[in-house]
Design brief:
The complex is a heterodimer.
Chain A lengths: L3 E4 L2 E2 L2 E2 L1 H17 L3 E7 L6 H5 L8 E6 L5 H15 L3 E4 L3 H14 L2 E6 L1 E5 L2 E8 L4 E7 L4 E5 L15 E5 L10 E8 L12 E5 L8 H12 L2 E4 L1 H5 L20 E5 L5 H4 L7 E6 L12 E4 L2 H17 L1
Parallel strand pairs in A: 1-4, 1-6, 4-5, 5-12, 6-11, 7-11, 14-15, 14-16, 16-17, 17-18
Antiparallel strand pairs in A: 2-3, 8-9, 9-10
Chain B lengths: L1 E5 L2 E3 L7 E2 L4 E2 L5 E3 L1 H16 L6 E7 L5 H9 L4 E5 L9 H13 L5 E5 L10 H9 L3 E11 L2 E8 L2 E7 L3 E5 L11 H6 L5 E4 L18 E7 L8 E4 L3 H14 L5
Parallel strand pairs in B: 1-6, 1-8, 6-7, 7-13, 8-12, 9-12
Antiparallel strand pairs in B: 2-5, 3-4, 9-10, 10-11
Helix pairs in contact in B: 3-4
Classes of the chains: A alpha/beta, B alpha/beta.
Chain lengths: 326, 264
């Protein structure tokens, strides 16, 4: 009745980290509700081995539904989840942070006439029901969201749910045959997971200098590379500048990029949108340079400099070099 | 081909947004504007129309909202839409994502578009999801956060960034596509277009006109309900330096970093 179904995204033989977090969170909530947490995977059968599916048991799923279908697209998963939720009379659908979870959760909301809450940072049990908490108005407030529907859809914020191997072992695997809706097959993947730009490693760097649209042009990254070099770190970028082709995708922080927590995160020309914040807010020290005094990044930086980064960054590079050399 | 662009009126970025404590709903009073993310969707429609790869007969701006939302439609028309449709009804006020998506789908059904475009998010609600809700109701293929659209043999070849890199997806029409802000640089409306916007056809529709069932929309029928607003955990406010003398600013930054042993 109140059972929970978690969508587990997979790619090239591995389950997504945010999905694993969602399974752990689902298992925790299910045990409080006195019910079970199930997971569902959708994809090509060859990639969905019994071993991969049952491994979700370690994170607390008791059963894993496996459906053969197209990968990397939301609508087929909506069909599969709607079927499993309806056939098994489940009460909640839960997603870890990420793009597909938003799309699937939204489609499911329409299909099942469900209640939905997105950007969820925490979930609790109250009177035998789940209550979601989500930040609103640029994270200036947090709102409780109560579900008043047969099915509640919970779409997590990136990194909101931590994966923990608290399960009791392997999950049982049940194959489901899904009759896909015609519209779900009208979008087809031509190429998935294309990497654009050079492969750079930012996850191991203790010092990151990140650039955003405020750099003004692709060449603005040259100054950041020099500063990063002086600090002994690497350069990262926001989604906006990666999409604009100014910097490598592999250096991108945030929602559809990497999550980092270096000793120092220096943000240059980054306004601090939530999609970026979720990928770097755990950094030990956050320094921001931005010419707009009202930029949201100043609300969560430890040191904020209101000024022109083109003037400040080159001088800072020289000063850091001088200090380190002394 | 007929393109409908979903637009929304949102509080102006300069207005501090707040929750009305007596209703638990966003206080949408004060200066309003067209949702900035929607201007990218209108621009995408205009580029398809002007691109010539497909014949676009009409671009229609569509919105749901109170009377004042007409201004968002005027703005959309000044940016190039040929006409607009406004769904407005007391019974729709306070609808949640589920109800709003359903109502917009009913309005769109009455227009029978070949393509529905919208922005990736609204500046106020930050939900990112309305396109996928609408698409499921309309039973159309859908993709969000698209940053490139090419017409390819009557289909749309779309690119977007997803969890593992860039995906290229071929989408059959009719479809619902939400565009990311990297897709284009929206044009500025000409003075002539601004002046002429109010003269373009604008149709106003009530919920009943497009077959919306009253018990599926509005505050009382919300499937998800916000309550109990609280402040997030306090984070100590950071130090702020206004850069007046850059040499001095840099000295302060270096001292700050050094204090935290980051320059060792």
């Amino acid at each position: 009745m109140s059972g929970i179904l978690v969508y587990a995204l997979h790619y090239e033989g591995a389950i997504n980290k945010n999905s694993l977090g969602a399974v752990s969170e689902g298992a925790r909530l299910a045990s409080e509700l006195g019910t079970e947490c199930h997971a569902i995977v959708v994809g090509e059968t060859a990639g969905l081995t019994d071993e991969l599916c049952s491994s979700l048991g370690a994170y607390g799923a008791t059963k894993v539904f496996r459906a053969e279908g197209p990968e990397g697209l939301a609508q087929p998963v909506v069909d599969a989840m709607a079927k499993v939720i309806t056939d098994n009379d489940l009460g909640y659908a839960l997603f870890g942070g990420g793009l597909l979870g938003f799309e699937i959760g939204a489609g499911l909301t329409a299909r099942l006439d469900a209640g939905v809450c997105m950007e969820v940072v925490s979930v609790r049990v109250e009177d035998g029901k789940l209550v979601s908490e989500r930040p609103i108005l640029g994270d200036s407030q947090i709102s409780d969201v109560h579900y008043d529907a047969g099915v509640g859809v919970i779409i997590g914020r990136l990194n909101a749910f931590e994966a923990s191997e608290n399960g009791s072992g392997a999950a049982t695997v049940e194959d489901v045959v899904v009759d896909y809706a015609p519209h779900s097959l009208k979008a087809t993947m031509v190429q998935r997971g294309e990497q654009r730009g050079a492969d750079v490693n930012i996850e191991d760097a203790q010092f990151l200098v990140a650039g955003g649209r405020g750099l003004g042009k692709a060449e603005g990254f040259e100054a950041l590379e020099q500063l990063a070099g002086a600090l002994g770190g690497a350069v990262a970028a926001t989604r906006a500048v990666v999409d604009a082709g100014w910097y490598s995708y592999s250096a991108q922080i945030g929602q559809t990029g990497k999550t980092v927590a270096p000793k120092l995160y220096l943000a240059a020309g980054i306004s601090g949108a939530i999609q970026h914040k979720v990928g770097m807010q755990s950094s030990e020290n956050i320094v921001a340079i931005n010419k707009d005094a009202n930029a949201p990044i100043f609300e969560f930086s430890d040191l904020g400099i209101v000024g022109d980064l083109n003037k400040i960054v080159p001088k800072l590079t020289e000063a850091v070099k001088a200090k380190k050399g002394s | 081909m007929k393109i409908c662009v979903l637009v929304k009126e949102v509080p102006d970025a300069a207005v501090e947004k707040r929750i009305n404590p007596s209703t638990g709903r966003l206080d949408r009073s004060g200066e309003k504007n067209l949702n900035p993310f929607d201007t990218h969707a209108i621009e995408a429609a205009m580029q398809l129309k002007e691109g010539g790869a497909v014949e676009v007969d009409e671009v229609v701006a569509v919105t749901m909202g109170p009377e004042s939302a007409v201004r968002a439609l005027h703005k959309a028309v000044s940016l190039g839409a040929d006409r607009s449709a406004h769904l407005t009804d007391e019974g729709l006020a306070g609808s949640d994502v589920n109800g709003t998506g359903y109502a917009l789908a009913k309005l769109l059904e009455s227009e029978s578009p070949d393509l529905v475009l919208l922005g990736q998010q609204s500046d106020d609600g930050e939900c990112y999801t309305i396109g996928a809700v609408v698409a499921d109701h309309l039973q159309m293929p859908s993709l969000t956060q698209v940053i490139k659209i090419d017409v390819d043999d009557g289909k749309l070849r779309c690119e977007r960034q997803a969890e593992y890199g860039y995906d290229t997806v071929l989408v059959e029409l009719p479809a619902v596509i939400s565009v990311g802000d990297a897709i284009n640089e929206p044009r500025y409306p000409s003075l002539k277009a601004i002046m002429g916007a109010k003269k373009k056809p604008l149709e106003t529709k009530a919920a009943g006109d497009v077959g919306i069932e009253a018990d599926r929309v509005g505050y009382d029928n919300a499937r998800a309900r916000c309550a109990d607003f609280k402040a997030p955990p306090d984070k100590a406010a950071g130090e702020i330096i206004e850069d007046e003398d850059t040499n001095e600013t840099v000295e302060k930054i270096v001292a700050w970093l050094d204090e935290r042993k980051l320059l060792a």
